[in-house]
Specification:
Two copies of one chain form a homodimer. By secondary structure, chain A is an alpha/beta fold. The first copy, chain A, has 17 helices and 19 strands.
Chain lengths: 482, 482
Amino acid sequence: MKQKVHRLDPFFRPQSIALFGSMQEGWFFGAAVIISDLMKWNYTGKIYPVHPTARTVYGIPVFQDLAQVKDVPELAVIVTSFRHAPGILEQCGAKGIRAAVIVSDGFGEAGPEGKIRQEELLRIAKAHGIRVMGPNTVGVFNSESRFTTVPYDRGYEYAKQGKLSIITQTGMYSPQAMAWHEYEAGINKVIDLGNMSDVDETDCLEYLSRDDSTDVISLYMEHSRRPRVFLDALKKASLRKPVLCLLPGGSPGAAQAMASHTGSMAGNAELYQAALRQGGALRVEEYEDLRDCATPFLRYPLPQGNRLGIITFSGAIGIQAIDAAEACGLSLGKLSSESRRELSAVSGTLGGHPIDVGPASATAGAGIFDLYQKCFDILAADENIDCIYLNTYVFNGLKPAYYEDLLGRIGSCRGKPVVSWCYGPSQQLVCEFGKLAERHGIPFYLNSRKAVRSLSYMARYAHWKAVASGKPLRRPSVHPAG
Amino acid sequence: MKQKVHRLDPFFRPQSIALFGSMQEGWFFGAAVIISDLMKWNYTGKIYPVHPTARTVYGIPVFQDLAQVKDVPELAVIVTSFRHAPGILEQCGAKGIRAAVIVSDGFGEAGPEGKIRQEELLRIAKAHGIRVMGPNTVGVFNSESRFTTVPYDRGYEYAKQGKLSIITQTGMYSPQAMAWHEYEAGINKVIDLGNMSDVDETDCLEYLSRDDSTDVISLYMEHSRRPRVFLDALKKASLRKPVLCLLPGGSPGAAQAMASHTGSMAGNAELYQAALRQGGALRVEEYEDLRDCATPFLRYPLPQGNRLGIITFSGAIGIQAIDAAEACGLSLGKLSSESRRELSAVSGTLGGHPIDVGPASATAGAGIFDLYQKCFDILAADENIDCIYLNTYVFNGLKPAYYEDLLGRIGSCRGKPVVSWCYGPSQQLVCEFGKLAERHGIPFYLNSRKAVRSLSYMARYAHWKAVASGKPLRRPSVHPAG
């Protein structure tokens, strides 16, 4: 399904690209890294490397001057010293290029002289009608169109194509800073805005909200140049798909540091928070959340309420999970009397909630997987339960692989969101279990608290969307904490 | 240094032990597991296995009846069905044994009939003056005296001897539930109280507070049978060493679940919270904190205040670290003018706080370690900084091993608490860095937030202790959040 051409399309799926910067092969940074990646990704567009002295790069001829290129490339990527960037941008404009990713640093982030240089860049861009991403950025990593401008050797291949897209005002989420290949659910696009001199978070939010290959948008945002337009774009985007947002600088010290380090507006934390809430953004707590809390959205339909079901191997974990749940707006579901009856029929030690399989498992032996399965089926069928937290235990005598069938069956049950955590006397076995769960589509977390909290974003979003769109949930529930 | 004999000593360093239960070799649970472990640990006391039909276990002769044992064992460990436990306890009493770990379940935790059985046990214990740990417990794991009553095959050897001791009202922290061997700082004792029919958290807190081999006490506590005595013991213990506490059940749902699952008193969460605060306990957030937040206490002296120093590879992480710091009662330290001067002399892009080495590192090349070292030395010497958060970056071109010298030098600097986190495009490299940091004595965390939060407990404890003992800190600071 070919999408209509959007004015930002040249940044995400250009038919041709001109690259300016080091063409040194095998080095960890530079224009050559991008070229190598594009070739590995079988990029179908045309690649025009431009460099005054290089002759070829990875078998492709290098142009000594942009003027030698007959085509008008759709996108320019400038990976040179800041000294050369304005001249190159000028040439791009003259050539008719209308989009540029400026990787070069030494601009707005580098003090008063840098700010002046950045203004000069913008003047050139405006004169030629060029949209600019950056400077001081790695640009775009787009697994959907197999296109990238990231000039760093990531150190890993990236083959999969997921549905999570990220907009970020820091390089921290870019492919050379995060192990995206280890993220089982897969990413779609990562957009690093850099100094955000032109293309900003609002442009990209609007773009991604219409992007059919993006199901969830995550946003790391320190500030907005145009908060009102942003709020409007956020609302529209949130009605279409969930927008997770990490907004640092809520504390006075951080706001001050942001102002002095990146020029972000300080002291507006409360205003931003109000705007984000109003716009339906789901504010996450920390760095990893922009990835980890997106996962359940990518894998499950929205829950119909905030009533949590818990299956645990340890009573204590059940209790800790309830604390975690209530702290983030979920509540422990009250099992139907039928569910309680069915549970009691499975084992005399069952029937309560959280469902603590520990005591029953002591006598179940190899029947433990059947025990888990029955408990899960009961929660999955119970109308009073909207989402499920599953806790397990592994050790040498109960290896992760033994859970394979169970996880396959639970993973194939797609009606309600399920998340998991596992513990045991070997971190290696716990990791193995986590990978197995993820392979079967069940989000796995580092602890109960993170697992349960990730479900709370789904409940919160379902509630917000129902209210905002005037389409109430089938089973209205208590308003989750905002 | 031999400690005075304490009435609980038989539980922690008995001269002789009688074991009741399965003597089946090679099985993952039973009395034989304990015997095997004691032998591997070169336990120097006498081991008396008691079983009606077994002849030997791991080369040791088995007694058919306790009456055949000539000695009076200091401790009995009962790992049988609940049906046999009362009879065995009766025999122990008759023999003159005055301490028993009752592993058997099916008592207080198992409904009304179980409660009656537990009362019967207690009646026997009282009649003979036997102190009981449990039932429904794994008892004691004591690396200091190389003694254990844990009847589960842990699946790993445990050789080291640390200074962290844990008291728990759930088996979740026991050696078969946690990978204690992967905890670099090392544990001293784990005490699982089980149903806590007799020996309770107050007994053990009092014991550990006088235990020279314990430097930090962690406590997982759902309830206390005698809160006033507990508060008194807590205060005394806190004046000697930090007491970390996880108190679940703060939410109404969890309190209710606790009451129905374990008989803990519901609805007292606020009272407990007040008592813990008053008693100087450091309330942690989640499961892993009882271990991870203990680490800096084990490795560093207490900070003189709450002023945090930050060295980061990414400006965004610096900002997120400040948010995390201010949320938990730390504040970003104001660098002295000398520090700022020295930083500017290192690089034109330095001088502010957080210290963002990112821009300078871009041109530093292999000099990046020297850059880190200089920034660290400046923070370590600055009188306005009480503790330090260190963030680094690893990828294929900047492998963890390259940091070895730097981590060695930073790790040898013991004046102020230092914690660390690292990021990069490979989780494996990040883990390697973490292990390296830990080996050099620098606590490593899963993210900035956890790293910074762990420092906050040190600042909070230093403050509490200074106030409670009337010995003010050298550099009084803002009162950290309680």
